[in-house]
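From the pipeline queue, job 12 of 40. The input is one protein chain; the requested action is below.

Action: predict structure.
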Amino acid sequence: MELQERENNGVPKEWLTDENPNHRFLAAKAIIMNDPTRREVAVGVLEELPNTTSLLGARVRRALAKFQLNVEDKLDILRKCSFRERFDFVTSELQKAVVSVGSVDSPEEADNWSLEKKRTYCESLLREFATYPRYRDRTSDAASILVHFGDVGLRVILDGTDDDDSEVRLVAVTCISELLLSHFQKLIVEIADLLGHWDERVSAHVPRMLWRSKAKFAIPKLEACLQHESSDFAALCAKAIAIIDPSKREESLQFVEGLEINAFYKSNLLAELRGEKPYLGL
């Protein structure tokens, strides 16, 4: 509560160099909101904060990513503007980006929320991340926050694979892949059902998740996918079968040999199935 009050009313200037990274984060925000002429100092502080998968790291990257996206969308217009107009625009967008970042400060705070509020927040967060550029930490940021909501967060991620927005679906399935072994094993049966997903960008992730989970129950589902219209996807399912059940390696090898797929991809996959090189993606 004290931090929230300080965030709204201003923070001590000495917090900008405080050892506590949360204090430095709040101080940088205060500068951007109250003293735009020192925005470069504030941005420098933000960029030097811990670039981790913690809540703080996620908040920092979300602010900077949103700011960068807003500026990139208007580059053509900005090139025709005067220096003062560009300065004012960048200052305004950076301020809006940082002010708009709102995440739960601690899991304890969210513990008091109703299930409906938790789900609504998680759905909103997943959609927000889907609007960001596909920078490498986008999935880690989303996953690191959503897991704090337990089963509610995991369910929102899984349900996100059926969202109308393709970017939400992509963030959701990559979150599942990242959290697979640590959080999603109890939902592996539902994940296996995604083999038949209508969006190939979602279904393409599933064979690898199944072989990483050693999901023997899914072999019949994988075998059914060998008749998939996409030969590349069928080959991936054959690889999954061979990894999950090594006794079926020869069958998978013969199946892949008969496929018409990219020559380079095929040669590497055959080498894996013959035991000439280690499996990729384990």
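Job complete. The mean pLDDT is 80.
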